[in-house]
Amino acid sequence: MMKPIIFCDFDGTITNNDNIVQIMEKFGPYEAGQLKKEILGQKISIQEGVRKLFALLPSEKKEEIISFVLKDAEIREGFSQFVTYTRERNIPLYIVSGGIDFFLHPVLEPYGPFEKIFCNEADFTGKTIHINYPHTCDNQCASQGCGCCKPSIIRSLSSDEHYNIVIGDSITDLEAAKMADAVLARDFLIQKCEEEGIPYKPFENFLDCIQHIDELTGAKS
Questions:
Q1: Nearby residues of 163 by Cβ (< 8 Å), 6 or more positions away
Q2: Can you give the pLDDT at residue 221?
Q3: Which of 2, 26, 95, 169 could form a disulfide with 187 if both were Cys (CB 3.0 to 4.6 A apart)?
Q4: Which helix (H) or strand (E) holds 86?
Q5: Host H or E run for residue 69
Q6: Which of 4, 206, 212 lies closest to 93, judged by CA?
Q7: Which of 125, 123, 151 is nearest to 136 (CA)?
């Protein structure tokens, strides 16, 4: 029997909105919009794009940004039940996110602890926010610019006995989706999966995810 293991995105997946997009719309200058288009259009790497985005923001805005995200971020329906569901069934749930630690951890704190949270890290010692990438691409990653490299994390944590389930919504989840045994997708990731011919199951909330995983694991039992 293969053991299910879940790799779940944060921005736009656990939360209804993409928090980085929301931060840039609130605090970012005009250039942020162009950088977003270049990232989504795969004209620049995610790593380069996110670093450039946050370099547009003064470090002194840290607490203001955290307060904004805590007020603005809406947790997707069913997430609390989903976390309980994975714990009751002993399914490892890893949060793998291109988001940034300083706002991600406060938002997720009421729902933890999780198996582990993988994300990027912010440095506020300079005039502008600098992003560090502790989970960079391994030598097997085709992109070599993921920032928080989800495929590399999956390779490091799963084995042949695991049934890898990826849950996501955007371009940052595409490479992980390519190597997953099952993909639960919404929004832009659906479009990319259809373009790439990647099988997926759509979801709107985490109650949908529970239903899909019940079906997937039932088929594997």
A1: 2, 3, 4, 5, 181, 182, 216, 217, 220
A2: 40
A3: 169
A4: helix 79-88
A5: helix 62-72
A6: 4
A7: 151
Largest CA distance in the chain: 54
Structure tokens at 119: 């994300």
Look at residue 81 and give its three-state secondary structure.
helix
What are 103-141's pLDDT values in tens digits?
Answer: 999 999 999 888 899 999 999 999 999 999 999 889 988
- Encoded amino acid at 61, one letter: K
Q: What is the pLDDT of residue 1?
A: 64
Pairing mode of beta strands 3-8, 162-168? parallel
- Among 33-42, 160-169, 188-197, the minimum mean pLDDT is found in 33-42
Backbone angle region of 118, left / alpha / beta, with phi > 0 → left and psi within -120 to 50 → alpha: beta
Instruction: Supply the pTM of this predicted model.
Output: 0.90
Q: Which of 205, 154, 145 is nearest to 179 (CA)?
A: 154
